[in-house]
Amino acid sequence: MSPPSRRLQTKPVITCLKTFLISYSLIFWFTGVILLAVGVWGKVSLEAYFQLASEKSTNAPYVLIGTGAIIITFGLFGCFATCRGSPWMLKLYAMFLVLVFIAEFVAGISGFLFRHEIKAVLGDAYKDAVTNYNTTDPKSSAVDNIQKTLHCCGVESYTDWNTTKYFKDQGIPDSCCKENTVCPVEDLKNLDRALNLVYHPGCFTKVTTLMESNLGIIAGMSFGIAFFQLIGVFLACCLSRYITNNQYEMV
């Protein structure tokens, strides 16, 4: 058995580490809520764009949603393990934080890489969706949603619709019409008469700018929170070691 004075010196350290780790676990739980919210926001706000590039889209929002939900659960587990002072539970908590770090790092890399490839992927996908537009399939619905939301029309300009099969039958889609504007079908079949009825700018530049910006936010959040996990790994390992040593010294 070690001298009482040494055990007395260890207890304040354990108490201090417990305080820090509980505070960290609460912050960790809150970051889980943030990740879950960011993942849902990314999925909902970028849904139309992911539909266009469904074969090459990023899984970053899904990773963030899953990771956020798990973090909320294990954040509470971290608080429980710290209060119990169980070395094996603290080690399990540290292992989980390492896994979270890896998952978020991968999500961040995925969003960052996709952000730089977005123009090539969405450019081809959007041109294909406009060329084969028919108002019924998911990609056509995505085109309508984008044109209404971003106030744009076509790929580079509203005149892009002139070469499509849909234009010959129905003219420019209604989703290109300006707000509070009545667009007769006969006018939409004529580019000159449609000039004052529809949006002029193309959607390609607006879509790529929006996607790069939003995926940049997701990547930045993932990287920032991922490296925050390393603090928890350090605290959990230190507390587990001190508690184990203190139990050994009492024998």
TrEMBL record:
GO terms for cellular component: plasma membrane. InterPro entries: Tetraspanin/Peripherin, Tetraspanin_animals, Tetraspanin_CS, Tetraspanin_EC2_sf, TSN6/7_LEL. The chain crosses the membrane at residues 21-42, 62-80, 92-114, 217-243. Keywords: Disulfide bond, Glycoprotein, Membrane, Transmembrane, Transmembrane helix. It is found in: Membrane. Coiled coil: none annotated. Signal peptide: none annotated. Disulfide bonds join C153-C176. Gene3D superfamilies: Tetraspanin. Pfam families: Tetraspanin. SUPFAM superfamilies: Tetraspanin (SSF48652). It is a multi-pass membrane protein. It comes from the Eukaryota. Belongs to the tetraspanin (TM4SF) family. May be involved in cell proliferation and cell motility. This is Tetraspanin. It comes from Oncorhynchus mykiss (Rainbow trout).
